[in-house]
Design goal:
Blueprint: H1 3-19, H2 25-32, H3 38-51, H4 59-84, H5 86-92, H6 107-126, H7 128-145, H8 155-179, H9 185-205, H10 210-216, H11 221-225, H12 227-251, H13 255-275, H14 279-304
Length: about 325
C-alpha cells in the first residue's frame, strides 16, 4: 500500500470517527425534554376521545400517535430550538447538552433532521390527514427557531405557533388517526379555539425571562406590552375562546358539558384575579392551577363532541 493510499484511508477513518455519536441516550433524552411532551400528548388524547372510536379497535393507531405527538414531533421541536439557540445557551445555560459539548459537533442538527424524517414516516403510516398535520407542525417547529423566520422573536407569532402545534394540531391528529379521515367540523373548531386560548398560556411562560429577552432582542409580549398589560391580555385570550366553547356546546345540545366548562372557567377567573396582582411572581403558580383547569375543560369538550357528526374521508 502506497503512502498516498494509506493517508486517504486514514483520512476516511478519521471522518468516520468524527461522525460517531459519542453521547449517551440519556443525553439525547435530555435534549428532547420529556417534560414538554405533556401538552401535545394531552391534546392528542383529547383528539382520541372526541373521535368517539373504541380505542381497542384502533389501539395501534392510538399508540403510534402518542409516540408521534410526544417524543417525535415535540421532542424534535425541542432539539431544533436548542440547535438554533446554542450560541445564546452557551452564555445563559452552558450546561445544556449542546453548548456543554455533551452532544458535540453538528449532532444537534442531525438529531433534529432525523427526528423530522422519522416523524413524517410514522405519520404517513397513520394516514394522509395525520401526515398533513405532522408536516405543518414540523414546519412551524423549524420556523419558530430557524433564521430568517425566528417566530420566537415576536410574542404574537411565536406564541401562536406553539399554541397551534401543542394543542390544535395535536388534537386534530388524534382524531384523524382514530377516524382514518378528516374529523368532523365540531372537532376542528374546538381544536382551533383551545389553540387560541393556549396563546395566553404561552404569554404567562414568558414572564420568567423578561430581562433576558430584552437583552437578547426577543419581543415577547411582556417585553412589548409590559408585564401587567401582558398578564391581563393573557387572561382575556385564555377566557374568550372558552366562552365561545360554552356557547357552541349549548348550541350542540350538550348542556351538562357546557355547565362543567362554565364551572372550570369560573374557577380560572378567580385564580386570574389573584395572579394579575403579582403576575411575575404568581405566573408559575397559575400555570400549575389555572392551566390545569383549562386542559380539563379541553377533555370535557372532547367528550361532548363524541359522535356529534360523522367524519368525512
Amino acid at each position: 500500500m502506497g503512502a498516498r493510499e494509506a493517508g486517504q484511508r486514514a483520512s476516511l477513518w478519521g471522518r468516520l470517527q468524527g461522525m460517531a455519536a459519542p453521547f449517551s441516550p440519556k443525553t439525547v433524552l435530555e435534549l428532547l425534554k420529556p417534560v414538554t411532551w405533556f401538552a401535545p400528548v394531552w391534546a392528542f388524547g383529547c383528539g382520541i376521545v372526541s373521535a368517539g372510536v373504541a380505542i381497542q379497535d384502533r389501539w395501534l393507531f392510538a399508540l403510534g400517535g402518542l409516540l408521534l405527538a410526544g417524543p417525535l414531533v415535540c421532542g424534535t421541536s425541542q432539539a431544533v430550538n436548542d440547535w438554533f439557540d446554542r450560541h445564546v445557551d452557551a452564555i445563559n445555560e452552558p450546561n445544556r447538552p449542546i453548548p456543554s459539548g455533551r452532544i458535540p459537533g453538528r449532532w444537534g442538527l442531525y438529531i433534529s433532521l432525523i427526528g423530522s424524517a422519522v416523524s413524517l414516516l410514522v405519520a404517513a403510516l397513520l394516514g394522509v390527514w395525520v401526515f398533513a398535520a405532522t408536516a405543518i407542525a414540523l414546519l412551524l417547529a423549524w420556523m419558530y427557531s430557524m433564521p430568517p423566520f425566528r417566530l420566537k422573536q415576536n410574542g404574537w407569532w411565536g406564541n401562536a405557533a406553539v399554541g397551534f402545534s401543542y394543542e390544535g394540531i395535536a388534537w386534530f391528529t388524534g382524531a384523524a388517526a382514530m377516524l382514518s379521515g378528516f374529523p368532523g367540523w365540531p372537532i376542528v373548531v374546538l381544536a382551533v379555539l383551545y389553540s387560541l386560548g393556549a396563546h395566553g398560556i404561552m404569554t404567562l411562560n414568558d414572564f420568567k425571562s423578561v430581562e433576558g429577552d430584552k437583552r437578547m432582542g426577543l419581543a415577547s409580549l411582556p417585553v412589548q406590552l409590559g408585564v401587567d398589560r401582558a398578564a391581563r391580555l393573557a387572561c382575556v385570550v385564555m377566557s374568550v375562546p372558552q366562552l365561545v366553547v360554552i356557547v357552541l356546546l349549548l348550541a350542540w345540545d350538550r348542556p351538562y358539558h357546557a355547565a362543567t366548562v362554565v364551572g372550570l372557567l369560573a374557577l380560572q377567573m378567580v385564580l386570574m384575579v389573584r395572579m394579575i396582582e403579582k403576575p411575575r411572581e404568581r405566573a408559575p403558580w397559575y400555570n400549575a392551577t389555572g392551566t390545569s383547569l383549562y386542559v380539563l375543560g379541553m377533555l370535557v369538550s372532547a367528550f361532548a363532541v363524541r359522535n356529534l357528526l360523522p367524519a368525512t374521508v
